[in-house]
Automatic annotation (TrEMBL):
<keyword id="KW-1003">Cell membrane</keyword>
<keyword id="KW-0472">Membrane</keyword>
<feature type="transmembrane region" description="Helical">
    <location>
        <begin position="59"/>
        <end position="81"/>
    </location>
</feature>
<feature type="transmembrane region" description="Helical">
    <location>
        <begin position="230"/>
        <end position="249"/>
    </location>
</feature>
<keyword id="KW-1133">Transmembrane helix</keyword>
<protein>
    <submittedName>
        <fullName>ABC transporter permease</fullName>
    </submittedName>
</protein>
<keyword id="KW-0812">Transmembrane</keyword>
<feature type="transmembrane region" description="Helical">
    <location>
        <begin position="29"/>
        <end position="47"/>
    </location>
</feature>
<dbReference type="InterPro" id="IPR001851">
    <property type="entry name" value="ABC_transp_permease"/>
</dbReference>
<feature type="transmembrane region" description="Helical">
    <location>
        <begin position="111"/>
        <end position="131"/>
    </location>
</feature>
<dbReference type="Pfam" id="PF02653">
    <property type="entry name" value="BPD_transp_2"/>
</dbReference>
<feature type="transmembrane region" description="Helical">
    <location>
        <begin position="175"/>
        <end position="199"/>
    </location>
</feature>
<feature type="transmembrane region" description="Helical">
    <location>
        <begin position="137"/>
        <end position="154"/>
    </location>
</feature>
<feature type="transmembrane region" description="Helical">
    <location>
        <begin position="284"/>
        <end position="306"/>
    </location>
</feature>
């Protein structure tokens, strides 16, 4: 039997994972399909709203919107490849933003605020990981409980009020531009690059594929599955903390309402990108392409003045189609 640490593309579960190569990732059929979908959405935008869609300001808006959810999506990709699910990411981000802005009202600087947001997010993720890995709770239930608890704690801390911030070091992430692009987009790009490197070029990434593909085989291969699972959720929480910094910069607020339904957008982007819900296979590139598709859809609905309800229906249909295609592909591989 092949060692899953050395060859994560052949986990014992029998589901072939991707080879750790960016070129191979782009060459995969599902990525080509996602690029085709993006191109189609761009054409729709150019046809329906050429005067508004093809502008530098709209492009910046798309990237800024994608940045916050995108950082969360990177963490969600690791968790789902590892065979888990995290429903608490939006609420944890809101809690981290409220906690950090509370410090801002006490005259703390941007560095302390950023560290606070990251520690709160990582701490919440660590609690999720401990409950799932060592408490043997079902990921759906554990993270659902964290969703409710984190949102409630954020509401209590903020007294259900939006807290304004004027800390320059945070706000400048959104207002300062390099080559016409806000700094928060570069932060998002950095997180994506680091996430890709960790997933495809480190032992941690190879173990993530192994644990998601077949936990028992990974355990027999010498991987501490429980410890690795805990770290995956801590990583997801860390990404929520970084996302909290970005949303504070973009909105200049901390609020218990931040991140509403972000968990669904992040999970949907991961699924659309080709990551298996059962774990063991997926790519960062695919998840980001899925995220850009959802972000473009949102942008097109806004530009065309379409109802938000219709937008949610469209996203729901896309998720259903993506899952059905996954099942069809798995059946085809099994034949």
């Amino acid at each position: 039997m092949s060692d899953p640490i050395e060859a994560p593309e052949r986990p014992a579960a029998g589901i072939a994972g991707p080879r750790p190569s960016l070129l191979n990732g782009f060459a995969e059929i599902r990525h080509v399909g996602l690029l085709g979908a993006l191109a189609l959405l761009v054409v729709v935008g150019l046809v329906t709203r050429p005067e508004n869609f093809a502008t530098a300001s709209n492009l910046v808006s798309i990237l800024a919107l994608a940045a916050t959810i995108g950082v969360i999506t990177v963490g969600a990709t690791f968790v789902i490849i590892g065979g888990g699910i995290d429903l608490s990411v939006g609420a944890v981000m809101a809690l981290a933003s409220v906690w950090a802005t509370t410090l801002a009202t006490q005259s703390y600087g941007p560095v302390v605020m950023a560290i606070c947001a990251i520690l709160v997010g990582t701490g919440a993720g660590l609690v999720n990981g401990l409950l799932i890995a060592y408490g043997r709770m079902v990921p759906f239930i554990a993270t659902l409980a964290m969703l409710v608890a984190a949102r409630g704690l954020a509401q209590r801390m903020s007294d259900r009020k939006t807290q304004l911030i004027q800390v320059e070091g945070i706000v400048q992430l959104s207002t300062t531009r390099l080559l016409g692009i806000p700094l928060l987009v570069y932060v998002f790009a950095l997180v994506v690059v680091l996430g890709w490197i960790v997933l495809n070029r480190t032992t941690f990434g190879r173990r993530t594929y192994a644990v998601g593909g077949n936990p028992e085989a990974a355990r027999l291969a010498g991987i501490d599955v429980r410890r690795h699972t805990m770290l995956l959720y801590a990583l997801s929480g860390f990404c929520c903390g970084v996302a909290a910094i970005l949303i504070m910069a973009r909105t200049t607020t901390g609020s218990s309402t931040h991140g509403d339904l972000y968990e669904l957008d992040a999970i949907a982007a991961v699924i659309i990108g080709g990551t298996l819900l059962t774990g063991g296979r997926g790519t960062i590139i695919g998840s980001i392409l899925g995220l850009l598709i959802f972000t473009l859809i949102t942008n097109l609905f806004i530009l065309n003045g379409l109802n938000t309800s219709d937008q949610l229906i469209a996203k729901g249909l896309i998720i259903v189609v993506a899952v059905l295609l996954q099942r069809r592909n798995l059946k085809a591989r099994a034949i």
